[in-house]
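Reopening closed ticket. The problem is back. First fold of the pair:
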Amino acid sequence: MGRIGAIIAVLMLAACIPAIEAPRPAPLPDAATVLPPVMTPQGLVVPPRAAAETFVQVVARVEPMAESACQALAARGTDCAFDIRVDPRPDQEPNAFQTLDPRGRPVIVFTLSLISAARNADELAFVLGHEAAHHIAGHIPRRMQTAERGALLGAVYGSVTGADAATMAQLQRMGAEIGARRYSKEFELEADALGAQIAWRAGYDPVRGTGFFERLPDPGDQFLGSHPQNAQRSAQVAAVVAELERGAIR
C-alpha cells in the first residue's frame, strides 16, 4: 500500500463510516444479561430483557426492508446481505455505524449503550434504516474516492512547493481529510431520507424515531462538519414521511 493508500485507510478507520470493523462485534443478543438497564425520563428502568427483545424484533422487521431497498437501488454487484451485530464492550458511547467486512459484506454495528438508551422501537428502526442507507447509497466508496482525490491534490501542491517528506505527508493527510468530509453532510441527509423510507415500510414511525436527535449535541453549521444540524435532519425526515403517507414516494 502506498503512502496515499495508507493515509486513506487511517482516515476511513477514524470516520463515522469505517472501512472495516474492529474489534469483532458480537451477534445479536439472545439473552437479557447482555444489556444493562437504563433510566427513562419518567424515572422507570427499562429491563435488559425488554431492551434486547425490542432490538431483535426491530432487526427482524427492518432488515428485510433494507435488503429489498438495497436490491432495488444499490449499484449492480452490491452485496445486500446485511450482517447486524452488537459491539459487546459496555464502556462504549451510544453509537451505530455501517462498515464492510473483508469480503465486502455490509455490517451494521450497534453499541450496547445505544440499544439501552433508545426510548422506543422507532428510534432503533430509524437508526438501523439510516445505517443501511449508507451502504445502499455507496457512501463508503464515494467517501474513499473524495479522500483519494484530496490526498492527491495535497501531494501535487507539495511537489509544486518543494515540500520535504514530512510536510508532503502532512499535506496528503490534510487533503484526504478535507476530501473525505466534503460530502459528509450530504451523505448523512441522504441516509436520513432513505433510512426513513426503510423504517416506515417496516411499520415504524421515523418522525418519532428522530427523537434521539433531541438528545444529541447540535453540530451547528461547522465548516467541513461531518453532520448537518439536528433540526435540518428532523425536518427532512418529517418531509419524507409526509410524502410517503400521501403516496408520492413509491
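Second fold of the pair, where the issue appears:
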Amino acid sequence: MSSPALGVREWLALTSLPGLGASRLAELIARRPAWPDGWLAVLPREAATALRLWLDHPARSPLAASVDAALAWAAASADHHLLHAGHPAWPDLLSEIADPPPLLWGWGDIASLAPPRLAMVGSRRATREGLTNAGAFARELATRGWCVVSGMALGIDAAAQQAALDAGGVSVAVLGCGIDVVYPPRHHRLHERLREQPGGLLLSEHPPGTPARAGFFPRRNRIVTGLSWGVLVVEAAEQSGSLVSARLAGEQGREVFALPGSLHNPQVRGCLRLIRQGAVLVREVDDILSELTQWQAPTMPVASRIEADDGDGDPLLRWLSGSPTPADVLVGLTGLDIAECQRRLLMLELEGQAARVAGGWVRLSTP
C-alpha cells in the first residue's frame, strides 16, 4: 500500500498536513508516490507547501511540534504504539479497505492484533437478553482464541469486550476520540482494563487529547469492521448505527452475522432485516466459525505450535503455502510474538524460501 521508504516520522508529517483527510490520503497512497518528490508532486498546493517547509526547515515548520509530540508519546512507554502500513504489527486486512487510516495510535498489548478477529456490535440501549447474548458469545470466542473487536460504546460493545477480558481472552477497542480520552465517561474502568490488561488494546486514528465528536464514530466503525474477518450484530433496532457497521462490513467484503429474536421485540428488528437481506443467521459460535473456516487456528495448544517442525528448516515454513497468509494470521498460528515472527520471515525471505506478496507471505521452497 505504501512506499517502503516511509517511516513513522513521514506518516506523522503526512497526517498532520492541512486539508488532507484519510480518504484523500488513501487516494494518494494508492498512487504509490516516491518519497519525497513524488508526494510533493501529487499533494494539493497548501499541503505540498507545508511538507516542503517541514523537509527543508523542520524547526520553522508548524508540523514539527505535532510530529515531535507524537514521537515523544510513543517513546514514553513500551505499551504506546504508532502503527502504519509496514509496521510489523499492522493488520494486513486493514490495508484492503477503501480508506484505511494512514496511522493508528495504540495503547496496550500490541499482541492483541495477532489472533483472528471478529467484530461484535449492537444497540447502545440493549435489552437484558441482548447483553447476556453478547457476553456469552464473546466469552466463547475468547476461549477459542478469537479477538473480539468493538468500539467500547454503551450496551452490546462494552458487554462483549468486558466478557472477553473476563474470560482471559483478547479484545481490541477502536475509539472515536483520542486514545487517552475516555468516552463514554462511565467506561473509565473498561478503558483502564483495555490498556493495562494482557490481551487488551485501544486503537484510534486520532492523536491523544482529541475529544469525541459525532462525525468520528461512523469513521471509527470502518476500522472496527476493517480489522475483522466478520461482524456479528447481536441486537439492533431498525435505525441502529450497528446497521451502518453491517453495511460497511459488506462493502469491505467481510461476512455479516446476526442473532435472531422475537418478532415483537423492536430491538431486534434490525437483525431480522439483516438476515432477510442475506446475513448469516447465528444460533451459536459454531455457526460463525463454520463460515470462517479459513481463519480457524489448529487445535494444538498455542505454546506448542511453533515446536511442530516438519523436518525442513524453520518450522514457520509449515504454515506457509502457495496461497498468501497474512503476517498477523501467522502470529496467531505459531504462537510467536510479532517481532520474532517478522524476524523469521525476513530470514526465510533472505534465504529464498519465502516471499511477501499482496495479501501476505507465501512459501517458495517445495514442501
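Update: turned out to be a display glitch only; the data is intact. The chain is about 40% helix and 15% strand. The two ends are 30 Å apart (CA to CA). Please close again.
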